[in-house]
């Protein structure tokens, strides 16, 4: 029996909201895996054209995604404090199992070109650069001025729509993650309003850029996404290894990997059965 599309979109949106708030993982990657990324980018890049046609799709993704994010926020402090390293191994494993699904979405039946390979390598190299920056002893924090928060929000909005790149990790690098999580948990939206405004601006502008590339060179764009996703798996796994405290967490990490394999495979079966056809 075929699952109703609104229900499927709601389930995907909830997962995207959860992943969106987790440092090291990307909600946009799930949108790619479940086949709604093209449609979402198209709607955001041309809202006046597609708002009426895709109104309920947009509302479902936005509202349920926000609910998923808030549910995640409530338990995020506990999970990160108690099980950060196993959690990172879990996400790295679950996402890696989805790479073949993204590859299938990129495959158009034609042979690979040097441009496709270069796009994949560039995406992978970008994530390795992020890993190197995260491992750097140097750190910085964005000031709390409204203008600086808007600028940080623009960067965050771009990352939210970039498969493989974690927006929460960027907030962590900018020294804003704890403040944003606390404000959202306490529903103190006034203090982070400039960040939200910047994220909306950055997201809408970046959607236009991505929509252009997906429309005119879909295969190369998706190979860049594959590179970003594969690079994010390596990045999260290496960071988890660096944070391991000897062998004390070994059993937890093995269990997390096993759970990641099972849930990743179930997600693969879900994707295979219910993935959304490509948007023309």
Comma- or semicolon-separated keywords:
globular
Structure description:
The protein is an all-alpha fold and 280 residues long. Helix content is 77%, strand content 0%. It has one domain (5-274). It has helices at residues 5-21, 27-33, 37-45, 47-50, 55-97, 99-106, 114-135, 146-160, 167-173, 177-185, 193-216, 218-243, 250-274.
Query: What is the first-to-last residue Cα distance?
Result: 26 Å
Radius of gyration: 18 Å
The helix tally amounts to 13
By helix and strand content, what is the structural category?
Answer: mainly alpha
The count of strands amounts to 0
Fraction of residues in helix: over 70%
What topology emerges from the helices and strands here?
Elements: H1 5-21, H2 27-33, H3 37-45, H4 47-50, H5 55-97, H6 99-106, H7 114-135, H8 146-160, H9 167-173, H10 177-185, H11 193-216, H12 218-243, H13 250-274
Helix pairs in contact: 1-2, 1-5, 3-11, 5-12, 5-13, 6-12, 7-12, 8-9, 8-11, 11-12
């Amino acid at each position: 029996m075929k699952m109703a599309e609104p229900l499927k979109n709601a389930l995907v949106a909830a997962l995207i909201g959860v992943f969106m708030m987790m440092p090291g993982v990307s909600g946009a990657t799930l949108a790619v895996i479940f086949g709604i990324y093209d449609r979402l980018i198209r709607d955001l890049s041309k809202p006046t054209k597609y708002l009426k046609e895709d109104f309920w799709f947009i509302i479902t993704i936005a509202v349920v995604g926000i609910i998923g994010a808030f549910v995640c926020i409530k338990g995020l402090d506990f999970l990160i404090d108690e099980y950060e390293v196993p959690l990172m191994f879990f996400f790295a494993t679950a996402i890696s199992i989805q790479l073949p699904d993204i590859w299938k979405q990129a495959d158009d039946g034609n042979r690979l070109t040097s441009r496709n390979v270069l796009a994949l390598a560039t995406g992978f190299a970008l994530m390795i650069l992020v890993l190197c920056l995260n491992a750097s002893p140097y750190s910085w924090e964005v000031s709390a001025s409204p203008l600086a928060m808007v600028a940080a929000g623009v960067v965050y909005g771009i990352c939210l729509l970039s498969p493989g790149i974690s927006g929460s990790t960027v907030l962590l690098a900018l020294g804003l993650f704890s403040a944003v999580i606390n404000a959202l948990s306490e529903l103190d939206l006034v203090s982070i309003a400039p960040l939200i405004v910047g994220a909306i601006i950055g997201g809408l502008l970046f959607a236009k850029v991505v929509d252009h590339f997906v429309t005119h060179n879909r295969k190369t764009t998706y190979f860049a996404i594959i590179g970003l996703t594969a690079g994010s798996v390596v990045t999260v796994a290496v960071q988890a290894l660096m944070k391991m405290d000897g062998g004390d967490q070994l059993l937890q990490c093995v269990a997390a990997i096993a759970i990641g394999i099972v849930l990743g495979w179930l997600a693969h079966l879900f994707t295979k059965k219910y993935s959304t056809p490509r948007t023309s």
